[in-house]
């Protein structure tokens, strides 16, 4: 009996588990190790922040999915690997043996190098922790809507921009319902580049910047945060290299992604940021018994941004190569698309569509299209 172990319940693994359940291999014992019971779908997270979706609408129930795929499940955190003995080292359980291993644990924003960032900011990943903080914040504002709130978002990529739109949408709605002035909310977006969404076409950057300015969101460009402190009355103070300082009640950290350090420490070959280097078959370049997909993997020949669209597309080819490896068949290469469409929700049930130099919106038709795509993706895990 061969042992296939999956670490993490990311998008690629969720798809692989579903499809394995539909067509399993005999004589293979499947195990899932995950530190969360419900895994969020990143495409619907901004809509959840805005209040458009319930928790269950945008979360995949991993125990149910494991049951469907006849997988053992350990609710535990992987903290290391023994690649000589093929063991997964867990925080709470005994080491778990494997013949074949797949890793899909996502990424976290880079905060380690900034003094005070870990202690005094809210990282957007892991998403489960972000949502705990978000629920607390909503509760505080609902209980005391007369009190002014100052928030900052560090990072002006797609994640930071969408978070700004949707935080603004939900909180202004709360103030309106409480008959409070909208200037109760002060929202800052801090970005180290000279324009937002710097990986996309400049025309999209201009459009998004104009929309955020209309909402009176304060934009700070070419600003690198080098320290975060907390005052005696729990106010957070952001200090930038330029000399800019900002005082806020909460800071959301949405900067460039980084990887868990235990992967490199285990001996896997990684890129400069610690992500597992994989070949065209989504297989570790240093350890053929290890596969990786989603944000945690960097394809040597096809490096791509850390975006959910790639994790979703990798689910099927990952499963196929895991099965082929177990059956000792030749593996099949996967080539990700170069240009990809993004749909940015603007917090008002409208969206902007962007691909290469082309962008359109925001309008409600694009939001309905985005909503349809997201709901369709989640529907496959609901029954």
Automatic annotation (TrEMBL):
InterPro entries (alphabetical): FAD/NAD-bd_sf (IPR036188), FAD/NAD-binding_dom (IPR023753), NADH-Q_oxidoreductase (IPR051169), Pyridine_nucleo_diS_OxRdtase_N (IPR017584), Reg_chr_condens (IPR000408)
Protein name: Ankyrin
Alphabetized GO MF terms: NAD(P)H dehydrogenase (quinone) activity
Entry cofactors: FAD
Pfam families, alphabetized: Pyr_redox_2
UniProt keywords, alphabetically: FAD, Flavoprotein, Oxidoreductase
UniProt lineage: Bacteria, Bacillati, Cyanobacteriota, Cyanophyceae, Oscillatoriophycideae
Family: Belongs to the NADH dehydrogenase family.
């Amino acid at each position: 009996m061969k042992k296939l172990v999956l670490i993490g319940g990311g998008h690629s693994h969720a798809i692989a588990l579903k499809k394995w359940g539909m067509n399993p291999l005999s004589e293979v014992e499947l195990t899932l190790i995950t530190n969360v019971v419900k895994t969020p779908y990143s495409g619907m997270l901004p809509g959840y922040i805005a209040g458009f979706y319930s928790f269950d609408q945008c979360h995949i129930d991993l125990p149910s999915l494991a049951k469907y795929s006849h997988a053992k499940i350990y609710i535990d955190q992987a903290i290391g690997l023994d690649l000589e003995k093929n063991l997964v080292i867990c925080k709470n359980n005994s080491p778990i043996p494997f013949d074949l291993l797949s890793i899909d644990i996502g990424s976290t924003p880079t905060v380690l190098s900034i003094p005070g960032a870990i202690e005094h900011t809210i990282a957007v990943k892991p998403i489960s922790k972000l949502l705990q903080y978000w629920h607390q914040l909503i509760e505080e504002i609902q209980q005391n809507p007369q009190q002014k709130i100052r928030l900052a978002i560090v990072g002006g990529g797609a994640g930071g921009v969408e978070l700004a739109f949707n935080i603004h949408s939900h909180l202004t709605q709360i103030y309106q319902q409480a008959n409070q002035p909208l200037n109760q909310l002060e929202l800052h977006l801090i970005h180290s580049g000279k324009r937002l969404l710097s990986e996309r076409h400049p025309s999209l950057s201009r459009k998004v910047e104009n929309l955020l300015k209309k909402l009176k969101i304060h934009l700070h460009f070419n600003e690198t945060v080098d320290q975060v402190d907390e005052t005696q009355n729990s106010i957070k103070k952001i200090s930038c290299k330029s000399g800019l300082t900002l005082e806020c009640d909460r800071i959301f950290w949405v900067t460039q992604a980084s990887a868990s350090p235990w992967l490199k420490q285990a001996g896997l070959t990684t890129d400069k940021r610690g992500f597992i280097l994989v070949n065209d078959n989504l297989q570790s370049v240093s350890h053929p018994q290890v596969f990786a997909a989603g944000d945690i993997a960097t394809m040597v020949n096809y490096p791509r941004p850390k975006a959910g669209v790639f994790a979703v597309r990798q689910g099927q080819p990952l499963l196929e190569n895991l099965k082929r490896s177990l059956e000792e068949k030749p593996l099949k290469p996967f080539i990700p698309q170069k240009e990809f469409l993004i749909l940015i929700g603007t917090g008002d049930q409208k969206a902007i569509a962007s691909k290469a130099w082309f962008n359109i919106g925001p309008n409600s038709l694009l939001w309905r299209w985005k909503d349809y795509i997201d709901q369709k993706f989640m529907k496959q895990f609901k029954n």
